[in-house]
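W.,

You were right to be curious about this one. When I first looked at the sequence I had no strong expectations either way, so I just let the prediction run and decided to look at it fresh. Below is the sequence, 155 residues in total, followed by the output.
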Amino acid sequence: MPAPKDMRLSEEGYRVLHEREGLRLKAYADTRGIWTIGLGHTSAAGPPQVVRGMTISAEEAEEIFRRDCQTFREEVIGAVAGELEQHQFDALASFIFNVGASAFRKSTALKRLNAGDLDGAAQALLMFNKPSEIMPRRRGEHRQFKEGLYVARVP
C-alpha cells in the first residue's frame, strides 16, 4: 500500500466525486445555508468566493473542481499517518470534499484510521449523517472505502 503523500485522486475517484457533487452553474444555499456553486465549491475551499446570484460556466466549474480536488488531496496527505489503498484515498477525498477539512481532522474516522482500525474508520464515516439526505452519499463513501466499490450513492 502506498503512503498518502504519493497518491492522487484516481480517474474513477474523480468521476464518482463529480457525480456525487453534481453540476450547478448558479450559486445556491446548501442544506446548511452555505453558498455553493459548480461541483460542490464553497468559499471555505478557496477562491472564488461564492455569493448569492453568482454564475459560472461549465468550464469554470471544472477548473474550480480540479483545484478543490487538489486542496482536499493535500488534506488527506496531511492528516493520514499510515498507508492507504487507492479506493480508500479516493473515498476520504470525497468525504473531506463534503464535510470539510476541519471536521475531518477532528473526526472519529480519522482517529480510528490513524490507530490502524480500518473497519472502525469506515463505520465512522457513517456518523456524519445529517441532514438525512446525505446518507446515500455517505453509504457510497463507506462502501468505496471498505470494499473498493465506486458508486456515487447507495440507497
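Here's what jumped out at me. The chain has a mean pLDDT of 95. And, maybe more interesting for your project: The CA atoms of residues 25 and 57 lie 6 Å apart.

Coffee later to discuss?

I.
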